[in-house]
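Summary for the steering committee. One of the milestones for this cycle was to obtain a three-dimensional model of the protein with adenine bound, which we needed before selecting residues for the alanine scan. The sequence and ligand used are listed below.
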Amino acid sequence: MRIDIITVLPELLKSPFEASILKRAIEANLVEVHFHNLRDYTTDKYKSVDDYQFGGGAGMVMMVEPIDKCITKLQSQRNYDEIIYMTPDGETLNQGIANKLSLHENIIILCGHYKGVDQRVRDKFITKEISIGDYVLSGGELGAAVLCDAVIRLIPGVLGNETSALTDSFQDNLLAPPIYTRPREYKGMKVPEILFSGNFPKIEKWREEQAYKRTQERRPDLLKD
Ligand code: ADE
């Protein structure tokens, strides 16, 4: 998979890709991540990427031309499955969206800034708009990092044990059950006996029940789907 991220702040975005699972995925050539600084696509000497809103109003708007130039250049090199715009008024990211995106070959992620992008960018280029939650960030970069993490860990081969992504919370619309490791008892707090029974079907059943109980308590909305 190849991900091209268009941003005015590439330095803000780089560190999540330089550690842990994302770093290993890149090193193993399971994913390529490329950063494109929008200021490299400006023609004026101040390298401006934003301008005042027509009609008045507070806040700057990202201009269509640098974004057009950057996306058009990328599109001349390969076909893209999705061109995603990170924005608080997009579709809220969930595990289902991450699963689908992880199957793609090439995606572009455009990070918004200031008040957002000129509507003509959205009309002409954007195929999907994603929000990471009902709150407003200073820009799309942190949202893009969240999206990339959620997607890249699902690419086959990225997680050492393939099954560990399958048992994540949300993967089957259930939250994950409680988990334990050593010691067996800590300050009087014991690990449930069933986990030492060696009876794997029984343990699996216990885990399913716990996952269901936790989902019912915390996220009953997930059980409705
Ligand atoms: N940009 C600003 N707020 C955002 C959000 N909640 N999700 C994605 N991109 C954003």
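Key point for the committee: The chain has two domains: 2-152, 169-223.
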